[in-house]
Write a structure and sequence with these properties.
Length: 364
């Protein structure tokens, strides 16, 4: 039940496709070709309850990785629900009592969480914590199926609209006693954006990192080729259903196969349908989101998993800032039209079927 990496970064060869204007392209390539294997720096660390791995190409790589780790620890100290003095813990402790002042990052992550909630008709619910805790997820204790009565009493406390944010003085308030915020579905995406920004600002042009399987790519590999990222087979962690070739974006997967427990022979996972209080069960095994916006990719991977394929595709058709790969319980691997242009399906041997969904409504 240990969390496993959902996506493996595989450094394979691929065709070099030029993009953008030629001058910009040349400048980027010159910067990249400066680097080789001797500038490769790697780090593995444990934070935010998961394994984090970094690969960057830079002459100052060692120091840059220390900076990246410090940034992650700084955000963890703000966002953690297990550290009692984190800003999120303080907000939760003050539920129903009053507002708390927040740092820029905590305010921003809550604001983005609320926005993604609105975009997904609250399938993404930043205030889901009371229900998640009732299942024993995030508490560190025994996991069990809560009674229907317990869930019914907790659901009214999970309305993100009762999390009030005041931009002017950067404060937040949970209006009802018993409410609590849970950043588990968004914190790693937000952190990946922060780390990407920090590393780019310090001159990194080539890197790849995984925050517990949430992958972020900076630029391309030093040889100018795109990064290859595997989309894991949700039924077998040692296998994958296809490969994505990407640059400068985040690739984030949510699935019911990552954290779960079993009771009376039935499996219960950690992504909760905020309408019912039970683990989401809408015919999906996993959702992978590809976007320049890592925060959004993290929130949406969780939300679209809760929503199910039909509503997820409808939301994608109305959006223009992400692409997605869905793996369904019926054994289909479905790519959105944009994702299909940089995804190679490799699940045939395991009886997966591949389809794409079009912007205009067709399936092929
Ligand atoms: P992971 O953290 O395993 O990468 P997700 O990004 O999908 O996976 O986040 C799952 C976590 O988000 C859960 O552990 C829980 O803390 C929280 N969560 C569960 N259900 C929801 C939901 N409907 N909306 C927002 N957050 C949720
Ligand atoms: Mg998520």
């Amino acid at each position: 039940m240990m969390k496993r990496n959902k996506l493996m970064a595989i450094l394979l060869c691929c065709v070099f496709v030029f993009g953008g204007c030629s001058e910009k392209r040349e400048a980027a390539q010159q910067m990249l070709s400066k680097y080789s294997e001797k500038d490769l720096h790697e780090m593995t660390t444990f934070a935010m309850d998961t394994v984090m791995q970094f690969t960057i190409y830079n002459e100052d790589g060692e120091q840059l990785l220390i900076d990246a780790e410090q940034e992650i620890r700084r955000l963890e100290r703000l966002f953690s629900v297990t550290m009692e003095d984190s800003e999120i813990s303080q907000l939760n402790q003050q539920a129903g009592e009053g507002a708390v002042s927040l740092s820029k990052d905590t305010f921003q992550v809550l604001k983005r969480g609320k926005e993604i909630g609105e975009l997904t008709n609250q399938a993404f619910d930043i205030a889901i914590s009371p229900v998640v805790k009732a299942w024993g997820f995030t508490t560190g204790g025994e996991k069990h199926v809560p009674s229907l009565k317990t869930l019914e009493s907790l659901l009214p406390l999970t309305n993100a609209k009762d999390l009030q944010l005041n931009e002017i003085d950067a404060t937040a308030q949970l209006l009802k006693k018993g409410m609590a915020v849970d950043l588990g579905g968004i914190a790693k995406g937000y952190t990946s954006d922060a780390v990407t920004a920090l590393l780019k600002e310090k001159g990194v042009v080539s890197g790849l990192f995984s925050l517990g399987g949430n992958i972020s790519a900076i630029g391309r590999k030093p040889d100018g080729k795109k990064w290859k990222i595997a989309v894991e087979n949700p039924l077998d962690a040692n296998d994958y259903v296809g490969l994505l070739e990407v640059e400068d974006c985040s690739v984030i997967t949510s699935g019911g196969y990552q954290r779960f427990f079993e009771e009376n022979g039935k499996r219960y996972h950690h992504i909760i349908d905020s309408k019912t209080g039970y683990p989401a069960d809408k015919g999906l095994l996993s959702v992978t989101i590809i976007s320049k916006d890592g925060t959004k990719a993290d929130g949406l991977s969780t939300a679209l998993f809760v929503m199910g394929l039909e509503d997820a595709v409808r939301l994608w058709r109305n959006s223009h800032d992400f692409e997605a790969i869905f793996v369904t319980t019926e054994g289909k691997v479905i790519a959105t039209e944009g994702a299909a242009t940089f995804f190679t399906f490799e699940g045939r041997d395991n009886d997966f079927k591949f389809e794409t969904v079009k912007r205009e409504g067709g399936v092929s």
